[in-house]
Specification:
By secondary structure, the chain is of the alpha+beta class. It contains 14 helices and 11 strands. The radius of gyration is 23 Å and the shape is elongated. The N and C termini lie far apart (84 Å).
Length: 345
């Protein structure tokens, strides 16, 4: 008698993972800043989503004309939409545009920079993600301009501290393969920050809030897990176990658009990433995301992105090594010890 081992059960579909895997982060640039008050920097970088880990001292961050957020050692701040903002030691600090500040305080080959002043020291390790400027992914619409995770919370420390320590160690060592390791760690850090935000039911909104609703969450899972199927509102409502009207109203209320419009945008999100990947024929890409007609696919793609699929393929981003050195990339030289002492004086 032969004994057959039972096949392992498939892991349940993870919707957040599915969405995160379609987020395109390119060319992460890191820096490590030692800042003595007073100091203030105004940062406007379209397509460059910054993050800041305050490792010592404290500082303020203000997005646009919004609320001032006080960040202390252990806090982590992420601006997923690359919103213009000001980082400063305090309200009385002179604010300098980022490009001007960088010229005055050039980074060394490992991204280190120093600002001298008579006041208290703040140390920040951070970086800039380069994100898809059109941000088709529904995740970006669901995230706030600023995610502020406080190191005083145990869950934040548990999730972020190991990654941040690895990042700091890689920056300090600057060994072979460091840039590759740092890019991978940037992906992990972004995912961790978004997950921590999503876990906070008081902060989550829009698409993330929809995940917590039984019917809308089930509908979202079906649309993501089986996005290439010929869904209709009626067939989706039947699978969810509710009426078309109730599903349509609740889905739009939480997610911000009707279920079929959401499905179209998600299909085009996946298609856009496929077009930036392997050189597959357009007909094959269309089929993979649920379109049997090239013409229908092209019309939907242009309606969502403003580009034809062929034109979009030409917009593939340059490799990380070709990034613009003015976008916070490290300068080629390190301040001398004498210059460092003078800056601190």
């Amino acid at each position: 008698m032969s004994i057959r081992s039972a096949a392992p059960e498939a892991a349940p579909f993870d919707l957040l993972t599915d969405v995160m895997e379609q987020v395109r982060l390119e060319g992460t640039v890191y820096f490590s800043a030692e800042l003595y008050a007073p100091w203030g920097i105004s940062i406007v970088r379209r397509g460059r989503a910054p993050f800041y880990a305050v490792t010592a001292g404290e500082c303020e961050l203000k997005v646009g004309r919004g609320t001032v957020h006080r960040a202390r050692a252990g806090d982590f701040l992420l601006l997923p939409g690359a919103a213009p903002h000001v980082v400063r030691s305090g309200r009385g600090a002179l604010i300098v545009p980022f490009d001007d500040w960088l010229r005055q305080h050039p980074m060394d080959r490992r991204g280190g920079t120093l600002h001298g002043g008579p006041g208290a020291a703040t140390r920040v390790t951070g970086g800039f993600f380069s994100v898809d400027p059109l941000r088709l992914n529904p995740l970006f619409a669901a995230l706030p301009p600023l995610i502020h995770l406080r190191g005083a919370e145990a869950r934040v420390r548990r999730a972020l501290r190991p990654s941040l320590r690895l990042i700091e160690a890689e920056i300090a060592a600057g060994g072979l393969g460091a840039q590759t390791v740092l890019r991978r760690l940037a992906d992990v850090l972004f995912i961790q920050a978004v997950r921590l935000h999503a876990d906070d039911s008081n902060e989550a909104a829009g698409w993330l809030r929809g995940l917590a609703d039984a019917r809308v969450g089930r509908a979202l899972t079906l649309l993501h897990e089986r996005y290439a199927e010929p869904w209709t509102l009626e067939s989706l409502a039947r699978e969810v176990g509710t009426s078309r009207t109730l599903l349509a109203v609740r889905f739009r209320e939480l997610v911000g658009e009707p279920p079929m419009a959401y499905l179209t945008r998600w299909r085009i999100t996946r298609a856009a990433n496929l077009l930036h990947g392997a050189r597959q024929p357009l007909a094959r890409v269309a089929e993979q995301v649920g379109y049997q007609s090239d013409a229908v696919f092209s019309r939907a793609f242009r309606r969502v992105t403003g580009h034809t699929p062929r034109a979009w393929r030409q917009l593939a981003p340059p490799p990380a090594a070709a990034r613009d050195p003015s976008d916070a990339s490290p300068a080629a030289r390190r301040p001398t010890a004498r210059a460092s002492r003078r800056l601190r004086a």
